Amino acid sequence: MDLNIIYGYIVVFTLQALGATSQCPDNRNCVCRGTYIECDCNINGQSVIIDTLPGVYMNVKCENITTINYSKLPQCVDHIGTLKSVSFKNCPLPSTSFKDVLTTLGVSRTTALIFQNERNFTHNFYRRHFKGLQDLTKLLLSLNGVIHLPEEVFMDLSNLKWLNIRMKSIKISEELLQPLQHLETLEINQNYLTTISKKIFTPLKFLKKFSLWQTNISNLSKEFFEGLKVLEELDLSSNSLSELPASIFNPLTNLKKLTLFSNNFVVLPKNLLRRNKELTTLIILNNNAKIKELPKLFLGNLSSLEQVHIQWCGIEFVANDTFFYSPLLTNISLAHNNIKNLPESLFNDQINLLELDLSFNNLKSLEAKLFSSLRSLERLNLCCNSISEISGSIFSPLLSLMYLNMENNKLKFISSNMFENSKRNMWISFALNELNFENKIVVNNSWRINVDSPFLYTYNLKLLNLSHNQFKQVFTDWWVNGHEKVDIRFNSIKNLWDIAENGMLQNNERSIKTPTKEVLVDNKNLICGCQNFWFLDFVQTHWKTKVANVDFKHCSLWSYRVCYMKLYIMISTIIIFTVMAVVVIFMYFIYKQKFNKILKRICSNLFRHAFYKKEDSKIVVKYSIFDEEFVLQEIIPGLKDYDNAKIIMKPVMTHKNNLLKKMKSQNHIEITLVIFSPNYLMTTYSQVNIKKIRGEMLKAKNTVYVFVDIGPDNSIYAFLKEKRDPEMSILWNEQNFWGKVMDFSSRDFQNRKKELKSDTDNQKNALVRKLEKVKFSSKKSFMRLSDWPHFETFETFAHSQV
Known about the structure:
Blueprint: H1 2-22, E1 30-33, E2 37-43, E3 46-53, E4 57-63, E5 81-83, E6 85-89, H2 98-104, E7 107-110, E8 112-120, E9 138-144, E10 146-147, E11 162-166, E12 169-170, E13 185-188, E14 209-211, E15 233-235, E16 257-259, E17 281-285, E18 307-311, E19 331-333, E20 355-357, E21 379-381, E22 403-405, E23 427-429, E24 438-443, E25 446-451, E26 463-465, H3 477-480, E27 485-487, H4 502-507, E28 518-520, H5 530-541, E29 546-548, H6 557-564, H7 566-590, H8 592-614, E30 617-624, H9 628-639, E31 646-652, H10 658-661, E32 669-676, H11 678-684, H12 690-699, E33 703-707, H13 715-722, E34 729-731, H14 737-776, H15 779-783, H16 792-801
Parallel strand pairs: 4-6, 5-7, 6-8, 8-9, 9-11, 10-12, 11-13, 13-14, 14-15, 15-16, 16-17, 17-18, 18-19, 19-20, 20-21, 21-22, 22-23, 23-26, 26-27, 27-28, 28-29, 30-31, 30-32, 32-33, 33-34
Antiparallel strand pairs: 1-2, 2-3, 3-4, 24-25
C-alpha cells in the first residue's frame, strides 16, 4: 500500500515537470529550469529570474539592476490569466503602470501586489503606477529609502483591504488614506514618521487591524483614534511612548487585542481601559522603564478579558482588586518582574483561569488561600523566585492542575499532604531547591525529625523532577506509583531503596502493577553495596524500569562480583566446615588420650585467666606537685583509654612517712608510672647521691619512668636521662609514646601476676626487718650514713618497690 502511494507521487511530479517543461517560453535569452516554471532570463545583459506557479503566484527577482525595460520580459507561460499574487523583489520602479508590466508577463488579473527593494531606493510613487488595478485588495510596499507618497497615489485602489507600508521615512498627509474607504488592515511598520495628523485615520471606518510598530512615535493625542469604532486589534509596540492620555482608547469600543510591547511607560492611567469592554487580550512586554505598580482596578470590570501578559516591566506591587470582576480570564502572566508579595484575594474571581505564570519574581512566600478559587487552573509556574516555605494545603483547591513548576526556589521541606487531591498525569518539578524532606516537630517538649514523601498520593505522573536538591533518601512511592519519569539526579542519595523496606518489596512484588517507567539517577554518591546492585537488577528485570545514568563505574569490579558470589561462598563455607568437623572427629578418636590432656590444660589456663581478670589492677601515677598541671592535661587523658585499670594519682609533696606506706598489704596488681622531671628529682632526691638514685631506679620493679623536661635545668637529671635503661623508661617526646607505655604496662602486669603470691610475704618480712633496724639504731649511727643522710632514702626505697 505504501509503495503504491510513493509510486503515485513520483508519477504526478514527473507529469508536472514534463508539463512545466513544455510550457517554457521559446526565447533564446531564457533558460527554463526547476520542477515548476522558473525562467532565468538575460535582458540586455541584466539577469532577471521569473518563478511562476500557474494560478497561484509569480515572483520577479532582479539582480544588481538599476534600470530595466519591462516590455522585453518574456511570457513564461502562455495564457497565465489570473494569479493570487505577484511580487517584485529588488527591481526598479517601472515608468508606467504595474498593470502594463503584468500584461507583458501574461497576467490579466491579480488581487495582491508586493513591491520590495532592499537597496537604497530613491524613486517616488505616483498615481499612474497603480492605474488599472481596481481588483487589487492587498498591497505591500517595503522599501529602503525616503519616499514621498502624493495625496492621490491610492486614488484608483478603492477596493484595497490590506495595506502594509514599510519605508525608512515617510510623510503621511490627511488626504492620503481617504480613497481607501474599505481598508480593513493597515500596517505602517518600521518607519520614521516625521509628522502625523490627529485625524488622519478617521476616514477608515471599516479598519479592524492597525499597527504602528516601530514608527518612533513618542506621544499621541487623545483624539488620535477617533472614528475607528470597529477597530479590533491595535499594536503600538517598539516606540518611544512614555505616557498615554487616560481617554485615548475610549473611541475603540470594539477593541479586542492591545499590544504595547517595548515602550517607555512609567505610569499607566487608572481608567485607561474602562471603555474597552470587548477587550480580550492585553500584552505589555519588555518595557524600557519600570512601571513598579499597576493602578487599582486596572484590569477590573472587563467582562470579556481572557489573556493578560505583563512581563519585563519592573512591577513590584499588585493591588488585590487588579482583576476584580473580570471572570473570563484564562491566562495571566506576570513573569519577569520584581513582585515580592501577592495579596491573598488577588485571584478570587478567576474561576475560569487555566494558566498562571508568576515566574522570575522575588516572591518569598505564598498566602495559604492564594489559589483557593482556581478550580480550573491547569498550569502554574512559580519557578525562579525565593520561596522558602509554602503551606501544606496551598495546592489542594487546584483540582485540575496538570503542570506545576517550582524550580529554582529555596524550599527545604514539603508537607506530606500537599498533593492529596492531585490528578493523574501531572507534570511536577521541584528541581534546583534545597529539599531534604526533613520536618522538625515538637514531641514531649523535644524536637523530632520526620522524613516523609510529599508525593505519596500522586500517581501516573508524566514527570517528577527532584534533581539538584539535598535529600539523602529515596521513597518507595517514587518507584511504584506508575510515574513515566522520575528525575532524582544530583542529590546525596546513597541507597536506591530503603533497606528497612526489603520485606515489603518481596511481599508486594506481585501486587505492584504499575512501577515507574524511567528513573534518572547519578551514581556520584551511591554506595558500592550489594543492596544497590540487587535492587537495580530487580527493577530492570521484573519491573522493566529504565534506570538511566547509573553505571557504578566508581565501584571496583570485585565489589560487584562478590554480591553475586554470595551463594557460592555460603555453599563453600558449609562444605569447608563440614570437612573440618569430620577431620576433628576422626583425630579425636585417634588421639583421644592426648586430646583430654590438651583440653584440661586449655580449661586450666582459661580459669586462671578469668581469676586474674577479676583481680584489681592499678596504675599509680607518681609526680612532683609542681608538675600537676602537666599530668592532668597530658598523662591522665591518655591513661583513661587503658582498659580494666584504676588510676591513682600520688603527688610528691613531703619526704616523710613514705616508708610506712610500704607496709600496707597489697593484694592487687599494681604498677607505678613515675613522671621523672627536674622538679620530681629536686622534690624526691634533693640530697641523695646520684649513684644511689641510679641504683634504686635499676632495682625498681613494676615501675616505668617517664622522663619529661619540665622545670629548671639540672645536670643530674641530664645524666640520668642519658644513662636511662630503655627496658624500664621512656622519653615523653618519643614517637608512639602511648604504645610503648601500654607495652611496659602489659609486661609488668604479667610479671606481677606470676610473682604476686610468692613475693608478698617476702616483701613484708624485708620491710619489717628494715623498720626494726631503723627503730633500734642510735641516732648517731643513723646520721653517719654519709651516702644516705636523710629519711628520703627510705622513702626512695619504698617508692621504688611500690
